[in-house]
Specification:
By secondary structure, this protein is mainly α. The protein is built from four helices and no strands.
C-alpha cells in the first residue's frame, strides 16, 4: 500500500464521517462542515484522476467506517476534529515517500488538509496555532 493509497483511504473515511456528523450541526459549524465535506470530495476526485492518469486502479472505499455514536453537536464536532487530524497526519506521513511525484502529491495534500483542519478548528472555536499539524504528540 502506497502513501497515496493510505491518503485516499483517509479521504474516503472523512467523507463518510462528514455525512454522519454534519446533520447534527448548525450555524457556522454546519456551513464549514459542508464546505469541508466538499473539499474532501474534491481531493478524492483529484486522487482518482491521478490514478486514472497513471493507468492504475484506485483502491475502493470501504463499505462503512466506524464513526461511533454521533448523537449531538458536541459528538459531531469531536468526530470531525479527530477526522481532520487523522487526514492531516496521514498526508504528513506520506511526505516521507521516496518517489518524488508521490512526495509532491502528499505534500500538496498535506498543505490542503492542514488548512482544512485550521478552518474546522476556527469554526468550532478552537485554537488553530499548530506549526506542524498532524505531527504525533
Amino acid at each position: 500500500m502506497t502513501a497515496t493509497d493510505t491518503g485516499l483511504a483517509a479521504e474516503y473515511a472523512a467523507i463518510f464521517a462528514y455525512g454522519a456528523a454534519a446533520v447534527h450541526l448548525d450555524g457556522d459549524a454546519r456551513e464549514q462542515a459542508e464546505a469541508l465535506d466538499s473539499e474532501h470530495r474534491s481531493r478524492r476526485d483529484a486522487l482518482l484522476d491521478h490514478y486514472a492518469a497513471a493507468g492504475a486502479e484506485a483502491p475502493a472505499p470501504a463499505a462503512g467506517y466506524d464513526v461511533g455514536v454521533v448523537a449531538d453537536a458536541a459528538a459531531a464536532q469531536e468526530l470531525l476534529t479527530a477526522v481532520e487530524l487523522d487526514v492531516t497526519a496521514t498526508w504528513r506521513a506520506g511526505a516521507a515517500a521516496t518517489d518524488p511525484e508521490e512526495r509532491r502529491l502528499c505534500l500538496d495534500m498535506y498543505a490542503a488538509s492542514a488548512v482544512s483542519l485550521a478552518r474546522w478548528r476556527l469554526a468550532i472555536g478552537q485554537a488553530v496555532a499548530d506549526p506542524w499539524p498532524g505531527r504525533p504528540q
